[in-house]
Write a structure and sequence with these properties.
The complex is a heterodimer.
Chain A (H helix, E strand, L loop, with lengths): L9 H5 L3 H24 L2 E2 L4 E2 L4 H8 L3 H30 L3 H15 L2 H12 L4 H5 L22 H25 L2 H10 L4 H30 L2 H6 L7 H9 L6 H40 L6 H30 L17 H42 L8 H9 L2 H15 L5 H26 L2 H9 L4 H12 L1 H17 L2 H6 L7 H8 L5 H29 L10
Antiparallel strand pairs in A: 1-2
Helix pairs in contact in A: 2-13, 2-15, 2-17, 2-18, 3-13, 4-8, 4-10, 4-13, 4-14, 5-8, 6-8, 6-14, 6-24, 8-10, 8-14, 9-10, 10-13, 10-16, 12-13, 13-17, 14-24, 15-18, 15-21, 15-24, 16-18, 18-21, 19-20, 21-24, 23-24
Chain B lengths: L5 E10 L2 E10 L4 E5 L6 H9 L7 E8 L2 E2 L10 E4 L11 H8 L7 H14 L15 H14 L4 E5 L7 H18 L3 E5 L2 H7 L2 E4 L2
Parallel strand pairs in B: 3-8, 3-9, 6-7, 7-8
Antiparallel strand pairs in B: 1-2, 1-4, 4-5
Classes of the chains: A mainly alpha, B alpha/beta.
Amino acid sequence: MTPRCDTKTARARFLPWAPLLTLAIMFGPVLAGVLGTIGPAFGYLPALGGDSVSPTAFAMLFDWPGITRASVLSVTTGIAATTISLLLVALICAAWSGSRAFRVIERMLSPLLSVPHAAAAFGLAFLIAPSGWIARATSPWLTGWDRPPDLLILQDPYGLSLIAGLVVKEVPFLLLMTLAALGQIRTAQARDTALALGYAPVTAWFKTVFPRVYAQIRLPVFAVLAFSMTVVDVSLILGPTTPPTLAVQILRWMNDPDLSQRFLASAAAVWQLALVVFTMLLWRLAEIAVAHLGRRWVASGARGGATRTVRAIALAAAMLSAGSIVFGLFGLAVWSVAGLWSFPDLLPDAFTGRTWMRHAMNLWPIASETLIIAAVSTLVALLLTLACLEAEERHGLKPGSRALWLLYVPLIVPQIAFLTGLQTLAIFTGIDGNRLAVIAVHIIFVLPYVFLSLADPFRAWDARYGHVARALGAGCDGVLWRVRLPMLLRPILTAAAVGFAVSIGQFLPTLLAGAGRVQTLTTEAVALASGGDRRVISVYALAQTALALLPFALALFVPAIVWRNRKGLRHA
Amino acid sequence: MPDPGLTLDHVTIRRNGRTLVDISDHIAPGEVLTVMGPSGSGKSTLLSYIIGTLDSAFEARGRVILNGTDITDLAPEARHVGILFQDELLFPHLSVGQNLAFGLRASVKGRAERTRQIEAALADIGMDGFADRDPDTLSGGQKARVALMRMLLSGPKALLLDEPFSRLDTERRDQIRALVFDQARAKGLPVLLVTHDHADAEAAGGRVHRLE
């Protein structure tokens, strides 16, 4: 805690309120949105003549023929995507942590993370579609196909391609969270002890490290579970269509020109929220069961083996997962400049810049809208985060470990559940459909990521620099602006890049808060999905990816240039 | 005229009910008081209390009086107490010259005059022309000298030393130690040195206070 700061200026007086303001900005809309969903779900929406509480909307919902399928689909995709991602991440860490291969994986994480969900989903779609790259690469010599086979690979009724699309994006996220957790607990010792006792490395990791790591990443795992159950953009691209997933169906009802459908949409959103809570309880029960079995496994003393096989499997899985994104983007790049490209040719007959040129004029205003929204929401999130962290420093307003839950609330409460209500409220108060509304909603999702990525480096800063600076006559503000923030330039820019990428990737918040009138690269790209013009989709998805990756490049190069003559900050 | 020098008036520091430091003493200008004790005995805690950065987990009582002024409740930056740590803690984002400028009092106005004083300070420690260097490229002895100069340029009225010589090799240690004590004596500063090294205490030549 920094002692005795000047509290006379307006800025200094604001600081102790920063955590409260941040919570209000983050939770106000979530809370209002959930209430705005629950009200109409039970028939209460005075503006549309609903002023009595009735279960009619739920009756309509359960009369909808697709309800069982859509609900089951939501639960199965959520559980499958989360289980597979978690298993993959655990396997990669168990088999490779501490090795050189692992450092390569670590370095690929940030760029993979910043690729927007929609772009990754399109990339994957263009790989695995019947006329996609995988089919082309194996035809006709292996498959015998000389035209795209009539297979329902994309948008399959079981949601398998949707699960695949979720896994490739959730693995980097969970891996990053796991790395952060591994940094906090001393894992090498436990593992080395187990190795000395004759355990195979992978078994040693699962028996000694995994239980402690899992306790640390439980919140991110729940966030992945809730996200996978309710995702809309990936589902529109890769998910089943008749019926679609519940979240997609809710969006359709929301967009229905017949406003009375909003009662139905709200009821469905409440039902979706109930499903998520139910699945989380289910997950919790599974945790207990797995922990029980795990304890028996640990007590059995089995040393394990087959290290090489497990390592090979883990590496193959990691490469498949990362490769899907990398080759997917590569595929988008080729499609965006493709001339005539007939099946089963591996590459187009000719390359042309026509698609890019034709869409450049449309692309420009949309790209700048995307940039403005991302820049403003990131800036606000960054300022609030820094104010909270500095308040924690100056006023000892240190959040307990339980407060970490708060950061995850916007990531765990399904977007569809509160954005539905938020839009309903916004329409009748007339504040929807403009850029400010979109920015306000983006901040809700950008803030947790910026905070999570900046908090550790900010707190890890050596406080003695501050003590020296103050003994030299600098005040609290002087320490912050002249010493701490410059020294933390790299983590600050990285946090900003993360926030930027999060904002650019937002689909549902943009669509609902913007009432369809605020267009970003993401909403445009997803809207193009139904048209199926691969060249145009590729142009938009690539532009979206480029915008999300650019800040990461800046976060890498700006400190390298600014501090080119400062060896002490090169690895900070 | 009040007593010049640094007075510790019944300073006690406790943590969880255990008394770490209990000291009452007066250090005259130019005098060195050495506080010795094993690590964990609260030596550094005493210095944090004097410069005003003591963690609130500690319970501290007693007054700190500098040249007749009670500074116990002042903000750290208003106390004019300089400190040197075991690590030099040169700001890694600033050049050597900018580090010195950070220390140099704001009352020295005008870029030309400030630059002149910084150049002169560098010349004083035999480091002419080092103003634009990256502090991380300096040797241990050079860093220690820059840290000392940075502190002296801030015009301190007392000097606290937190084992500042322990990181240096034997040869450099004597040299830097002599430089620090000479400067303090020349400027008439009361010096409080905490160390666990008997050689430091001997070189300081003053009284020794032992913590258990």
